[in-house]
Every structure is written in structure tokens, then in C-alpha cells.
Specification:
Order of helices and strands: HHHHHHHHH
Number of helices: 9
Strand content: under 5%
Radius of gyration: 17 Å
Distance between the termini: 63 Å
Length: 151
Amino acid sequence: MTAFEKMVERGWSEAVRSAVEDYALMKQSVISALTSSHPDTRSAAVAVFIEAGDKNVHDIVAALLDDPSSQVRDEAMEYLMDHALPEDAPRLIAIMRNGGNPFLATMALCRSTGKEGDIVDDDIPGPERMRAIERWENLVRRPPTDVDHDT
């Protein structure tokens, strides 16, 4: 059990706060905690990366979009709301299609693509939601345009 895992056992929020305060010393323990069998520990580790603003753990966190725990997947999407890359877009769309948190996926898509599309959330009825997701797919597939504003 890592030092960070022990901290989470004593309290999720306090563990995140403490690990962020001593991030340089705690980073490796936090990364190791991502393999914990406890979803609370994995989600707390992602929360540390969010609060620390660490862009260098993107690939590790993006892999958690496939975590069995919705709590961990949601934290990973929150991380991507700040640090998403264009290559994250297909996975985020798949999350919207397959019952993940569509609102968080939408916010991360805005970040990863630099585009604004429909806000998709659980309040949108099924057929309307599917049309909104299809519009996102089209936005993601559309190549960026270069507009010359000087002419």
C-alpha cells in the first residue's frame, strides 16, 4: 500500500489536499495509487492531478476513461476538461454514446477540439441526444479552416 493510499483511507479530501501541497514528493506515490483496487483511491489520485495542474500525466489519466468505476471515469473526464488533446475526442464521443457522463464528456470535447457544439446531458431525450452526439462527430471530423482575416 502506497503512502497516498494510506492517506486516502484516512480521508479523501484531506489526502488530495496534502498530496497537492507536497506534490513533488508525492507524485510517484499518487501515480502508483492508480493501480489500487479501491475506486476511491484511484479517483483521489486523479483529483490530485487536476488540482496540481499536471499536464504530464495526460496519457495515464486518459487511460482511466475505461476504468470500471464511474467515479474514476468522471474524475478522468474532469481532468480532460483542462488538459484534453484532439486525440481524446473519439473516446469522449464513445463515452457519450455508451452511457458515460455526457455533460463532462461534452466539456472535455470542447477543450480537446477547440470547438463549441451542443451541450449533451442526461436531461436531453434519447433521440435528441443521439442527434447532438452525431453533430459532435461531424464537428470532430471536420478539418480546421484557415481564414485569412487580412483580405
